[in-house]
What we know:
This protein is an alpha/beta fold. The chain has three domains: 10-92 and 374-394, Serine Threonine Protein Phosphatase 5, Tetratricopeptide repeat; 96-210, Orthogonal Bundle (DNA Cyclobutane Dipyrimidine Photolyase, subunit A, domain 3); 250-365, HUPs (Rossmann fold, 3-Layer(aba) Sandwich). The chain is built from 18 helices and five strands. The chain has a five-stranded parallel β-sheet with strand order 3-2-1-4-5, sandwiched between helices. Helix 13 (286-307) links the parallel strand 2 and strand 3 (311-314). Helix 4 (58-68) packs antiparallel against helix 5 (71-92) and helix 9 (146-159) crosses helix 11. The chain is globular and about 65 Å long. The site of flavin-adenine dinucleotide (FAD) has 28 residues, from helix 3, helix 5, helix 9 and helix 11.
Amino acid sequence: MIGLNFTPSRTMALDRLTHFAPLAGRHYETGRNTDAGPDHANSVSYLSPYVRHRIITEHEIIAEVLRHHRLPVAEKFVQEVLWRTYWKGWMEMRPSVWRRFLNERDRHRTTFHDHHAIACAEKGQTGIEGFDDWARELVETGYLHNHARMWFASIWIFTLRLPWALGADFFLRHLLDADAASNTLSWRWVAGLQTVGKTYLATTENIAKFTNGRFAPKGLATEAISLTEPAVEPAGDLRQPTRHDPSQPSLLLVTHEDMHPESIFSSAYDFRSVLVAADDALLWGDRARQFATKGATEMTTRAAAHFDCPTHSITALDAETLVTSAHAAGVRQIIAPYAPVGPVADAIADLALVLAQQGITVVTIRREWDSRFWPNAKKGFFNFKERMPQLLSESGL
Ligand SMILES: Cc1cc2nc3c(=O)[nH]c(=O)nc-3n(C[C@H](O)[C@H](O)[C@H](O)COP(=O)(O)OP(=O)(O)OC[C@H]3O[C@@H](n4cnc5c(N)ncnc54)[C@H](O)[C@@H]3O)c2cc1C
């Protein structure tokens, strides 16, 4: 299937970017909304599983694209990449929205009465053309085109009238790019919770047009009335970076949240050992687990060569393993790339408290990209987008 070979390696990600970058201008802008199906060429990049795990970074993607196009020509693509950055920044300053999703999901898992309807929707047995195909495509490939994700979420919420949080959970369990911020906030956006009162209604005409006539589902909801919820708390401050001394001997801890530490840490850091953690419990679905685990294996080889120190992989991110590894490396400082809101960030925060009692400090380092862009995600994407040229320029792009 074209585009759908998601081999979890940096070589593959760079290869894909090299082929896509010349097409990131008008070709992308005019074709990006069309989903010709998994067996046909689409105009999108298929980079999301790689950038989600930061096997490749937003900076690298935009830099390569701007080598081929001036910003006004590739603006649409660059903006799409920045939606990822924006959602992450937005969530980072409102972590309660993630917890709200988890609570909502757990509540519906136990109280939602129509298990049959959920099972039919997930298996692609609703009888709704397109919707059923996307459900199967998601499970079989781990990927859905952005427009298909929007149609699917809209039909789930407004035609089938199923709880949005269970739909978001279905995506998390199957997407290779499953991501706390992009997934939760996109589902909320479709439901009218994110931009309060503004929903997304999937229509037969729009689906027929942008699937090249493959699907024209009948009986879709004709209106999309916003879901409601108690007001979301105002944006708080970003978590402050922990003070640390780069020259102090340290252990580098890499997780599936950021698998390119080579582009974060300068030679000022004195790493005595690298630990690559691929912890199944911190990922949602089997496909994403396999992707991250294989990616971690490749990462281990890269890290060993780059940091020139002993490198080990672990399958459980727990205090005992970290303490043993720190002692073996003779260090009292563990440094990890910053993990955005989600299970890895929670695990690292918990571990930091336990390890502090053993005299070991855990420090997380945020990328300059995130520190520069995220504070601008307090309001809507329009404001964020307005700042884009300046922020890109400050990033050397
Ligand atoms: C209901 C719903 C759920 C989603 N869940 C996720 C998710 O769990 N993880 C995830 O990574 N994306 C999610 N998205 C966003 C988007 O659909 C995917 O990032 C995109 O389809 C990835 O395919 P691509 O790389 O071929 O995209 P391209 O069109 O080639 O875009 C290039 C890059 O821009 C970013 N991007 C593009 N569109 C979006 C968007 N709408 N929001 C955020 N970033 C975007 C991605 O990093 C993508 O790799 C969701 C969208 C919707 C509507």
